[in-house]
Amino acid sequence: MNLVRRENSPLSFYRPIEDRFERMFENMFQDFFSPFIAQSALSGGEGGDIVSPRLNVKETDKTYEIEVEIPGVKKEDVKVAVDNQRISIEGEVKRESAQKEGENIVYAERSIKKFARSVMLPVEVDDAGAQAKLENGVLMLTLPKKVTAQPKKLTIQ
């Protein structure tokens, strides 16, 4: 098994093209499957980055149920917006450590991180009946599907 690319290979000329195609397909699949693929954990990324929390989307006959992992976040720090088929979740997790006078922080990984995630559902949801609940670091959204008008059948006389 080779862990290092050989640049003296006869195919090394095609590497940049191969890398470009690989990135293109990766982006295409990420966009297409984004409602169902966790992009990164909330704890990931460097300080100040906007991260995407992991989520699950479940469909029932009448609702969509979305579970979003946002450990350590208070409900006051989360915003959820429902706009037809698009569900947007954003906020920040505050993990500040209080530095006392006379202390020198040698190493710190706790910080304030912003998170954002948007999901496009296959059908519109009834925003009036939408519910959100935050429990044990998991945001649970229950989104009723919008009732569509059924076609009227006419009796031929």
TrEMBL record:
CDD domains: ACD_sHsps-like (cd06464). Pfam families: HSP20. Keywords: Stress response. Gene3D superfamilies: 2.60.40.790. The keyword Metal-binding does not apply. It comes from the Bacteria. The keyword Cell cycle does not apply. Residues 46-157 form the SHSP domain. SUPFAM superfamilies: HSP20-like chaperones. Belongs to the small heat shock protein (HSP20) family. This is Heat shock protein Hsp20.
